[in-house]
Amino acid sequence: MSTEYMPVIFIHGWGGVSDMFRDFDEHDERDPYIGWNDGCRYNDPEGWLKLRETPNFEGMVFRLVKDYNYYDAANDESLTLLTQLCRAYPTSIPPGLPYHASDKTIWIFRYYEYNADHLHLSQNARKALLYELQTRGYKGPLAGIPYYAALLALTIRRIAGKTCYDLEKLCPGTTPTARGLGLKRVALVGHSMGGLIARFAIQYNLYDTQEYVGKLATLATPHGGARYAIASRMLRWLPGLTQDDVMYLDPSWVNKHLGGQNPQAFHKPLPPSLKEEDVFCLIGTRRDGYFLIARRLPRTDGIVHQDEAYLQGFPYAYFYQTHSGSYGIRENLAPYQALRRFLFGDLHVKIWVESVQFGASAQHAHADNRFFFRYGVKPRGINVYLNEISEECENQPKPRTLAELNSIVSAGRYVVYDGFADSAAVVPLAGLEMPGVAASEAEVPHLQIEHRSYLYNAFVGGMPVGSNYTMVPLILGVTHITASDQEFNFTLGVSVTKR
Q1: What domains lie within the chain, and their CATH numbers?
Q2: Quick one: 237 exposed, middle or buried, by C-beta within 10 A (0-12, 13-18, 19+)?
Q3: What pLDDT, on the 0 to 100 scale, is given for residue 43?
Q4: Cα distance between residue 499 and residue 421, in whole Å
Q5: How far apart are CA 493 and CA 350, in angstroms?
Q6: For the chain, what is the radius of gyration of the CA atoms?
Q7: Rounded to whole angstroms, how far apart are CA atoms 134 and 250?
Q8: Mutual orientation of helices 144-160 and 123-135 as an angle, nearest 10°?
Q9: Are residues 253 and 226 in contact, defined by beta-carbon separation less than 8 angstroms?
Q10: Cα gap 486→100, rounded to integer Å
Q11: Residue ranges in the chain whose pLDDT is less than 70
Q12: Which of 4, 22, 291, 483 is 20 to 30 Å from 226 by CA-CA measure?
């Protein structure tokens, strides 16, 4: 199956402490991409990387333009210039001019621009938005996440639908008579609160959003609510905090109005059109390097707890990144590598541990010894993790005896990777048969698993007892591979399906 491209809409998160008092400040004015084009340079104090290409991440918008020839629609929201370009070169593109298409477009949804201190919506428009929310089953005020979700739904309809609504002429009960761009389906990528805004628009089917959304990715989104938001109630006496956005991150609000982390058990679930492989949650695990007070919040990215950042029944992955900033989950290469495989890859890959046994050369094969493991999954040829389970990430399973480990494994609860890849990594075995070369030796691996074993010690935490790496060939169907280190032998199950 060829790659299915669709317009990508980026949705930013809550603006931070400054937005507790102002909805749109000077920093927002200076950053038209609201953080989506911030990147990171990987400095190397030792200098050895200078022998190779220095790895830089330029930012998600720039990388999509650079890697996939996406078109930045920030200054061409009617796509007039793009249409002229496509008409000028309908079949052949001159050398040096990248090919663009309307389904390969990038959009930034800047919802703070719709707040009262920046844009004054008419009373009719506000009544129409509230009418849509009430008609779809939401009975709260026109503020925060529901308000932004309604505006996002209008944006989605304008990009994907053949007909759309004119915000300036919007009235309760208005039918869509304006001409949309007709791009059929979009991919939504939401950071933090942006993921909840996207979910609300989809789950409540605002302006028929479900018809037009093909994929949903969330980065550091508090799907179970953000625990720190509860403390914000104590600040309600401050000016401007009565309806501040942070209140909508309260776990009680998220659970009541979105179903928390189990939307499929909610009375307004994600639609059947969004299958398991169409939703992906990226979870940050690094608190060191974020705000000083945030560094004291265990098992968080500095703000969102790991246990609140995924959706039940859908794939998710862990990254050693903070909520935002220099080490942020939006601003670094590893999450981008995972995101681009979700957006454009046509394979859904699951890897899990099926059995663990002591090896013949094991030095610590005692029934009472407790062990834990570190796993990191990398794409072939790129030194970043697509998923990391480690003590550093604070997501490592607790130390267990071998018998306890196999009890967990037999229950199918030791998943190493649940993510995506592309069919370019799959080589048909029949095409590799040649004299003197066994097909199994000619398989081209796409993923590499780095694994380390530790013996638990109450004084030092963990003592390393084994390490190795295993290459995983991506073959359609379910396969079983063996892995080993100095202490253990593992059997891994690998499932590769077409999306």
Answers
A1: 8-344 (3.40.50), 351-498 (2.60.40)
A2: exposed
A3: 55
A4: 10
A5: 8
A6: 24
A7: 21
A8: 90
A9: no
A10: 51
A11: 1-3, 15-30, 42-55, 88-100, 116-119, 228-244, 424-445
A12: 22
